[in-house]
């Protein structure tokens, strides 16, 4: 198997019976744990108007997690750039890089990270900002790289900061952009697997070497539920599948304990919808995961696997990170 890196995505998901502070503490605990295991990075995702997600102020949370860890890279998976002025993002991440040098990543997405009504509130009724994603990415690069003191608008801190940018995608659009700019590309297969294969092919085929990268670098985020035994992993995975069912039916719930059967058992429409959203989900013991993930990585020439971990039990959640690491040694 090719050399690859292992990392994690976290949304500071609120568990049943717990608070947003508990969710943030759980994120910090995970970051500290996977740092000891040698994971490459932990990314935090920007979402808004979601009662059971505590990562809306993503840059603030990145700073908190970075302050509680020592070596692991901490970044955004991602900052939804159309929600923000590039100057503000440059200043925020320039500040983070100043505080935690060599440890900050900036993943950028074009989606709102929420519903359209909330997107209007974020973007002050200007929903056209998503059409300027490429321009905003280039503006952001300009703020970081500027060395012309005569520029009228500059980012302090930010200017001269070595903050690596990553383009995020859940369809093929951003694959073209990441390839054209010669930037690394991260695909959200953990919830939008349908176009992953096509997007990966586009990115690899169209990639243009740049001062940032000589060769394409592909990160793929997938759901992985690991346990000592396959049956236990399948049981733990019901928390994940039930959470997705709540998203699909617009009955969002906190992350809840596993159930004997998924809550949508026997409802074909929801079964199909959940399956379609979670097609890139790997559930099993270390032996089965080693086989399945190795095949997946080799099939798509993946450079880095980024795993989500929606396990309710805190000890089993941390143990899962270890088992995933063991499976992919």
UniProtKB/TrEMBL annotation:
Q: Which GO terms describe its molecular function?
A: oxidoreductase activity
Q: Which UniProt keywords apply?
A: Oxidoreductase
Q: Where is the Luciferase-like domain?
A: 19-293
EC? Answer: 1.-.-.-
EC supergroup of this enzyme: oxidoreductase
**InterPro entries per the record?**
Bact_Lucif_Oxidored, CmoO-like, Luciferase-like_dom, Luciferase-like_sf
The family classification in the record reads:
To bacterial alkanal monooxygenase alpha and beta chains.
Q: What PANTHER family does the entry give? A: LUCIFERASE-LIKE MONOOXYGENASE
Q: Provide the protein name.
A: LLM class flavin-dependent oxidoreductase
């Amino acid at each position: 198997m090719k050399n690859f890196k292992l990392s994690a995505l976290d949304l500071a998901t609120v568990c049943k019976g717990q608070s947003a502070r508990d969710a943030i503490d759980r994120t910090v605990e995970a970051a500290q744990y996977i740092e000891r295991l040698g994971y490459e990075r932990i990314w935090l995702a920007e979402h808004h108007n979601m009662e059971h997600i505590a990562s809306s102020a993503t840059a603030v949370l990145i700073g908190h997690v970075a302050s509680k860890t020592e070596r692991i890279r901490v970044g955004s998976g991602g900052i939804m750039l159309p929600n923000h002025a590039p100057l503000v993002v440059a200043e925020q991440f320039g500040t983070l890089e100043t505080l935690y040098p060599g440890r900050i990543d900036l993943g950028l997405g074009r989606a709102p990270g929420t519903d359209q009504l909330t997107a209007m509130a974020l973007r002050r009724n200007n929903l056209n900002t998503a059409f300027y994603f490429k321009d905003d990415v280039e503006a952001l690069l300009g703020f970081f790289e500027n060395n012309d003191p005569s520029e009228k608008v500059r980012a302090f801190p930010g200017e001269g900061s070595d903050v690596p940018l990553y383009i995020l995608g859940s369809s093929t659009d951003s694959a073209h952009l990441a390839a054209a700019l010669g930037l690394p590309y991260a695909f959200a297969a953990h919830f939008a697997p349908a176009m992953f294969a096509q997007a990966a092919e586009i990115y690899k085929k169209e990639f243009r070497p740049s001062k940032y990268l000589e060769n394409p670098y592909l990160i793929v985020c997938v759901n992985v539920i690991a346990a000592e035994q396959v049956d236990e992993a399948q049981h733990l995975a019901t928390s994940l599948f039930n959470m997705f069912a709540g998203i699909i039916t617009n009955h969002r719930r906190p992350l809840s304990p596993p159930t004997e059967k998924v809550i949508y058992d026997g409802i074909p429409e929801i079964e199909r919808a959940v399956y379609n959203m979670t097609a890139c989900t790997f559930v099993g013991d270390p032996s089965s995961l080693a086989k399945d993930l190795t095949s997946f990585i080799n099939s798509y020439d993946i450079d880095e696997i980024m795993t989500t971990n929606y396990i309710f039990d805190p000890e089993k959640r941390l143990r899962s990170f270890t088992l995933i690491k063991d499976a992919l040694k």
